[in-house]
Specification:
This protein has about 110 residues and is mainly alpha-helical. Helices cover about 65% and strands about 10% of the residues. It has a domain of about 40 residues. The longest helix is centred in the C-terminal third of the chain and has 66 residues. Keywords: Membrane, Transmembrane, Transmembrane helix.
């Protein structure tokens, strides 16, 4: 074990070599204030929940927007089908009327 001279103090005419680990300056300092540490588990759970809520909210709004677009497209298709059906029905009634007129003439 190598002892490096960190502090040279005179002691009754002699120089005493003490390592830093036992120096007075280290032990005479004011005590550190007590802190409540944030545990890794608690921080990890909080981070996970924060990320999960953020991801869930973004997915919810994305799906909600996609649902609205799909619903509008479906409503447009239904109205187009309805108008096509009405046109077809009017065409069929017109043809039936012409067929009835032709049969009456015979």
């Amino acid at each position: 074990m190598i002892v490096r001279p960190q502090l040279l103090l005179p002691l009754r005419g002699r120089v005493v070599i003490r390592p830093f680990s036992v120096s007075r300056a280290r032990w005479e300092g004011a005590p550190l204030p007590a802190r409540k540490p944030v545990g890794a588990f608690r921080g990890g759970v909080f981070g996970f929940l924060t990320g999960a809520v953020a991801a869930g909210a973004s997915v919810y709004y994305y799906v909600l927007g996609d649902y609205r677009v799909a619903n509008e497209m479906l409503s447009d298709d239904i109205s187009a089908l309805q108008s096509a059906t009405l046109k077809l029905q009017s065409y069929i009634t017109e043809l039936e009327g012409k067929v009835d007129q032709l049969q009456k003439k015979k």
